[in-house]
Write the structure tokens for this entry.
Amino acid sequence: MTTASLDHASSEAPQSRSRWWRRALITLVIIFAAALLLPITVRQVESRMDPVTGSMTWKTTWLFGITSGPQLDVSPVETRMKTSGIEWTPSWQFLHNTHRNIFGGVTRYEYECGVHPPIYELRPVLTEFAASSTDEELRQFASLMQSGTAAEQKAAIEAAIEKGLE
């Protein structure tokens, strides 16, 4: 009769340990690579606003200079002015420029901000203001936003906010 020796030691123990170390090493490499990528800007978004109508435009520039053309957000005031035949020339004023990393976060020290035009404060009630204003009121508003003094523009914006909140 032949006897077979029993080997109670598992032969898989060294392999599972080496797999654990590989997983840990791969995880560390991924974390290190992510940390290196954080400060790299892959997307830059610039926005501008028309100080008369409150319409906005965005331009996105991707890594290596690839640009997705400007996106336009036409405000209700601009729509009403066009249908009423009120003429003006858009003057796109710089609002901000953000630089984003591969994870979508703002890269360190890469946020540029301009001075917003007075109409920026009217944005929450632009729809209501445009709907409740007469053509003549819109014409006067546009004239003040184009050529009024800072005090006149501020007063016009405050009156427009009140009108929009009625």
